[in-house]
Specification:
about 375 residues, elongated, 3-stranded antiparallel beta sheet, alpha/beta, 6-stranded parallel beta sheet, about 40% helix, 11 strands, 15 helices
Length: about 375
């Protein structure tokens, strides 16, 4: 599978990384000069750019656009994350590319989507999850919505849905010989992630106020608690048998808390659990509860997560070029994903390697002689 990625930020690189991690040949078309794209960091730490080759092309020039179109003829998919209409003005819009390769799957990543009143407006993850109702459900009772990491919108509702859409489109194209456009909007993907909650809303099971339900910090048995050393632990025994196991291990009499699902008793039960967890350090609670059916886990930092025995046993976090990072996921029994290659700089050698999957040596030399690549 061969994929062209027009350089962008956030969700589109996430989609490209996921596909590259699973074995796709992905080439990133970068700008000749660095652009102010989001939060800047040294290249080796921009892990969303791992596992693919890179070449710099000035897409304001006709010869560079023509080079990309020649690559499109040999590609399964293209990823772009610009505002609607930008690639059309470049000469790299869906119509331009599908004329060169009718089987191409053209992946478009935006926040608001290709159509609609907000399609041309700027925005970021927080805005998209706000509009879809997701942000309103995140936070504690009586407090403002909590601003989460940009996992829900950019990476969950955006990058993952674009990757899934591209795979589905490529499967269809290989069967029919006809490609199509995949309009992956973060608002659409985030709304899709909220499917269960829309169902609960329709059934009258979702309360108006955030932080008052079972799984949003309203219930004492689905929350985090501070320990004697100031560290935190999480408990989530929703099922009765797991709830009973937690109380048994904590040494709390179930009769003192009342019925688990009686919301009237939740505030008092929370006080009891909060006082109990204050009696030991996080490490002591881990020794007592970890590995049990109490639905328990310590709240760890990123550094601590990399050292946890379970994640180490599964090699969930690996080190590449001195940088600890998540291993490719999911896992495959036969086509095992190899360790990722670090993000690549635009150099003569790297450009040659990147283009070798797309052009012959003579074609690459001609591009260099014409000044299309540097």
């Amino acid at each position: 599978m061969k994929i062209i990625e027009l350089a962008g930020i956030g969700p589109s690189p996430m989609a490209a990384m996921l596909l590259a991690d699973m074995g796709a040949t992905v080439i990133r078309i970068d700008r000749p000069q660095p652009a102010a794209l989001g939060i800047q960091r040294p290249l080796k730490y921009n892990l969303l750019l791992r596992n693919r080759r890179v070449v710099a092309l000035d897409l304001k020039k006709a010869d560079a656009v023509e080079t990309v179109l020649r690559m499109v003829e040999r590609a399964d998919a293209l990823i772009e994350g610009f505002r609607p209409g930008v690639t059309e003005r470049m000469g790299l819009g869906p119509d331009d590319c599908l004329r060169r390769n009718p089987a191409l799957v053209y992946g478009r990543m935006t926040g608001w989507g290709q159509t609609g009143p907000l399609a041309q407006s700027a925005g970021h993850d927080l805005n998209y999850i706000a509009l879809t109702g997701a942000l309103d459900r995140i936070g504690r009772a009586g407090q403002p919505p909590s601003v989460p990491l940009n996992i829900v919108g950019d990476y969950g509702g955006g990058g993952l849905y674009l990757a899934l859409g591209l795979l589905a489109g490529i499967l269809n194209a290989r069967k029919t010989g006809t490609g199509q456009v995949v309009d992956a909007a973060i608002v659409d993907g985030t709304a899709s992630l909220m499917t269960s909650f829309f169902g609960m809303q329709a059934a009258g099971m979702l309360k108006t106020e955030r932080g008052t339900g079972v799984m949003d910090s309203g219930a004492y048995f689905y929350d985090v608690y501070q320990c004697a050393d100031g560290r935190w632990v999480s408990v989530a025994p929703i099922e009765g048998k797991f709830h009973a196991e937690l109380l048994r291990l904590l040494g709390v009499d179930p009769a003192s808390l009342g019925e688990q699902m009686d919301e009237a008793g939740w505030p008092e039960a929370r006080v009891v659990l909060a006082a109990t967890f204050k009696n030991k350090t996080q490490a002591q609670w881990c020794e007592l509860l970890e590995g049990s059916d109490a639905c328990f886990a310590p709240v760890l930092t990123l550094e601590e997560a990399a050292k946890h025995p379970h994640l180490q046993a599964r090699a969930s976090l690996i080190e590449v070029d001195g940088v600890v990072q998540p291993a490719p996921a999911p896992r495959f029994s036969r086509t095992v994903s190899p360790p990722p290659i670090p993000p690549q700089e635009v150099t003569k050698e790297n450009t040659q390697t990147a283009l070798a999957d797309w052009f012959s040596k003579d074609e690459i030399q001609a591009l260099r002689a014409a000044g299309t690549i540097e």
